[in-house]
Amino acid sequence: MGIILNNISKSYKKVKALEDISFEVKPGELFGLIGPDGAGKTTLFRILTTLLIQDEGNASVAGYDVVKQYKDIRKHVGYMPGRFSLYQDLTVEENLNFFATIFGTTIAENYDLIKDIYVQIEPFKNRRAGKLSGGMKQKLALSCALIHKPKVLFLDEPTTGVDPVSRKEFWEMLKRLQQKGITILVSTPYMDEAELCDRIALITEGKILQINTPQAIIAAFPKKIFKVRTKETYRLIQDLKTYQNTHSAYPFGEYMHFTSNKDNFQGDELIQFLEEKNHAQIEVSETAATIEDSFMELTK
Ligand SMILES: Nc1ncnc2c1ncn2[C@@H]1O[C@H](COP(=O)(O)OP(=O)(O)OP(=O)(O)O)[C@@H](O)[C@H]1O
């Protein structure tokens, strides 16, 4: 009941959106597709939900071939597209009823599955979807994607544009759905969310860079990372770019993350360099790698 992709490629005229993508999502797994805008995530979702046909390769979802058995897939999967997919002029309840009707079911029949999520928006059931906040729209869209008890759930950037509290709640909901046996493929550009998945695929420019558990990807990071800050951020960036011992240096929140091209590089050397460059309020300390560091290293 999982997802299998074998050598999937897809182009839009000259743009190669997906290039030879192969991976497997195990039944009951919460699997993340992590990559920036334009990486090819939406194209992959469209192929797996039978809305687009691949140029090469084959794929199956819940045991059904995406081309030959597209009707079966449509019955058994839930899809929450990246852009808001609901009818803005229908109320919360009307939207949910509409999706239930399409799938030949009712809200009451599958209420158990959506209860946790739907109770949070039920007080607004007479409000038009277009008038909901980002977090509430997202809960309604998820309820609609679940109303027919899908075996596999596809969520394309479900937390984009949603506030941090709602994002956290959303991931807690996903974990609960997973415990009910639903296989979940979710995409996100947020690297911190990657760590909440069982396994992730890092994807960019239509290619997979790495697939593993978030922990294994982080553990495989090959270098010591220093977080660095000085009074003048812009000048710090420029100076780190020209420093002979720099392997990589990029902004990470209010710090820069720095790795060196030298074995056994010590933070003191960096401090000395920054002092020579007349930086003030120098802070340098070693820090643990994150998925974002791994991603940056792989795309270097
Ligand atoms: N209908 C289309 N016609 C032409 N090019 C397209 C079309 N749809 C997507 N592309 C291109 O294919 C590439 C992959 O796009 P896709 O939407 O799959 O990426 P994504 O990772 O989902 O990014 P985003 O979050 O921006 O949608 C991009 O270069 C995009 O510009």
Automatic annotation (TrEMBL):
<dbReference type="InterPro" id="IPR003593">
    <property type="entry name" value="AAA+_ATPase"/>
</dbReference>
<feature type="domain" description="ABC transporter">
    <location>
        <begin position="3"/>
        <end position="230"/>
    </location>
</feature>
<keyword id="KW-0536">Nodulation</keyword>
<protein>
    <submittedName>
        <fullName>ABC transporter ATP-binding protein</fullName>
    </submittedName>
</protein>
<dbReference type="InterPro" id="IPR027417">
    <property type="entry name" value="P-loop_NTPase"/>
</dbReference>
<dbReference type="GO" id="GO:0005524">
    <property type="term" value="F:ATP binding"/>
</dbReference>
<dbReference type="InterPro" id="IPR050763">
    <property type="entry name" value="ABC_transporter_ATP-binding"/>
</dbReference>
<keyword id="KW-0067">ATP-binding</keyword>
<comment type="similarity">
    <text>Belongs to the ABC transporter superfamily.</text>
</comment>
<dbReference type="InterPro" id="IPR003439">
    <property type="entry name" value="ABC_transporter-like_ATP-bd"/>
</dbReference>
<keyword id="KW-0813">Transport</keyword>
<keyword id="KW-0547">Nucleotide-binding</keyword>
<dbReference type="Pfam" id="PF00005">
    <property type="entry name" value="ABC_tran"/>
</dbReference>
<dbReference type="InterPro" id="IPR017871">
    <property type="entry name" value="ABC_transporter-like_CS"/>
</dbReference>
